[in-house]
Write a structure and sequence with these properties.
Shape: globular
Helix content: over 70%
Strand content: under 5%
Number of helices: 11
Number of domains: 1
Order of helices and strands: HHHHHHHHHHH
Structural class: mainly alpha
Number of strands: 0
Radius of gyration: 23 Å
Distance between the termini: 19 Å
Length: 281
């Protein structure tokens, strides 16, 4: 039997209490790496554009035009892809570390975890792209057709407009259905090292006949984590020292609790569902 929402929340807190240090270290590594990446982007952009800050506002249009040159756009696209790959790589390492914490397995260093996660990078990217294409394909197609029809000047009286609207409505529910169906695909890659297609199949199998049970438990766990965050965020609006204090509390809670605990509920359920389906390795 699947863990009750109450038991899931209790275990989530227990895993965090016992392994918070190993989870929290990735927050620092992530912020540090992306800070360096941001500095690299700024320096690279300045060198590539070869400009100094304009002395008067009349030069601003010429400055902004420099951002639309082919070399800068290429640099920005390459940088964006590199940032996405780095974020995916770190995400795999966090999933694996969270899984070790949930399973009470031996801890390993960040460097070793990142090294073991590297071969899974392209599988994870492929799984995310394929699941996104399957889940969001109809909705994306409807938006594309809508843009084409608008560009061609067709009005609301055209019969195809209603077809596109119906396709968009279907695409919305299609996105929700397959988005939930593939919710464990990234965990399947990171934890069990399966391939792209196999990760989607495994997630679909684990979710079979347990849609509301899984979604409900993840929703409850997410609610427990988010309510304090939004409560603290609301209290920031108070003037004076109290507002500053709760601003600091919000930041500490976000960095020290919300981020490290974000994967724990889904990883716990993933392992529980594997046991129930006889997929435990």
């Amino acid at each position: 039997m699947l863990l009750s929402p109450e038991d899931l929340i209790k275990r989530m807190v227990q895993v965090y209490r016992l392994h918070w240090a190993s989870l929290l270290r990735y927050v620092g590594v992530t912020f540090g790496l992306f800070l360096l990446l941001g500095i690299f982007f700024i320096v690279g952009a300045l060198l590539l554009l070869g400009f100094a800050l304009p002395e008067n506002s009349a030069d601003l249009p010429r400055l902004f035009q420099s951002f639309f040159t082919l070399p800068f756009i290429t640099f920005a696209v390459v940088f964006l892809i590199a940032a996405i790959l780095l974020d995916t790589w770190l995400g795999i390492a966090v999933i694996r570390t969270t899984s070790r914490a949930v399973q009470n397995e031996e801890k390993i260093s960040i460097g070793k975890e990142m090294k073991q996660s590297a071969p899974l990078l392209w599988k994870s990217v492929g799984s995310a792209l394929l699941s996104g294409l399957i889940a969001g394909g109809p909705l994306l197609l409807s938006l594309l057709l809508w843009a084409i029809f608008k560009f061609m000047g067709f009005g609301a009286e055209n019969p195809m407009t209603y077809v596109i609207i119906l396709l968009g409505i279907y695409g919305f529910f299609h996105l929700i259905y397959f988005g939930l169906k593939f919710v464990f695909s990234s965990l399947a890659v990171g934890i069990d090292h399966v391939g792209v297609v196999e990760s989607l199949k495994k997630s679909s199998t684990l979710m079979q006949d347990r849609w509301w049970a899984v979604v409900g438990r993840l929703f409850c766990a997410g609610l427990v984590l988010l309510i304090p965050y939004y409560l603290f965020s609301f209290l920031i609006e108070i003037d004076g020292f109290i507002g500053i204090f709760f601003g600091l509390v919000t930041f500490v809670y976000y960095i020290g609790v919300l981020l490290p605990m974000s994967f724990i509920p889904s990883v716990i359920l993933y392992h529980e569902l594997k046991k129930m389906h006889g997929h435990q390795k």
